[in-house]
Specification:
mainly alpha
Length: about 190
């Protein structure tokens, strides 16, 4: 089943025609102009700017959001897999909030899943406010979504600039992850 879905996804990616310029046969019956094109199709020239890639205000904001997403993901991995080291460095951190093996019960009444949710929507929409693990997940998703929204509207650019964006945002994300994860990794990269 996975292979079928993957195949269909790949086919739809290659089939996409978002910037198709020719007239589709279904529209061939439209009102004709003198140049034999339907009147409802307006051709716009898309110009690719020749400017060089540079870090502007948009990239600083979206890069900061991507860094925050990486930071929250790294913090989650630290809590999940290096709780003992985290607790050693922060002995006053409450396990009821920070330790995922304990804190997952915070969303239930009296910490018992059999008693149902602690409050309205505490197991769905408001789960991000029940413990640090879920708060980090919420921050991660909101940061990625916000970075995407901030970056939209940049206009069409050369492929090289998209590759620079890929490198820049990957570096922001991995730097954020490393900032929150590696200080608590007991192996220190060994």
């Amino acid at each position: 089943m996975k292979w079928i879905i993957l195949f269909l996804l790949v086919i739809t990616c290659f089939r996409g025609s978002a910037q198709q310029t020719e007239v589709a046969p279904a529209f061939a019956t439209g009102i004709k102009l003198n140049n034999n094109e339907p009147s409802f199709i307006q051709k716009e020239e898309i110009r690719v700017s020749a400017s060089h890639w540079k870090i502007d205000r948009n990239r600083v904001i979206s890069g900061g959001l991507v860094f925050l997403a990486g930071l929250s993901k790294g913090f989650n991995e630290t809590l999940q897999f290096h709780w003992k080291e985290f607790h050693r460095q922060f002995p006053h951190a409450r396990a009821q909030w920070f330790n995922p093996t304990v804190s997952w019960r915070n969303k239930y009444r009296n910490g018992d899943p059999n008693q149902g949710p602690k409050s309205f929507l505490s197991t769905s929409v408001l789960i991000g406010f029940t413990d640090q693990y879920h708060l980090n997940n919420m921050i991660n998703r909101l940061s990625w979504t916000s970075a995407l929204v901030v970056h939209i509207g940049g206009g069409k650019r050369p492929l090289k600039q998209y590759l620079f964006d890929l490198l820049y945002y990957s570096a922001c994300n991995y730097t954020g992850f490393a900032t929150a994860y590696y200080p608590f990794n007991k192996y220190k990269g060994k």
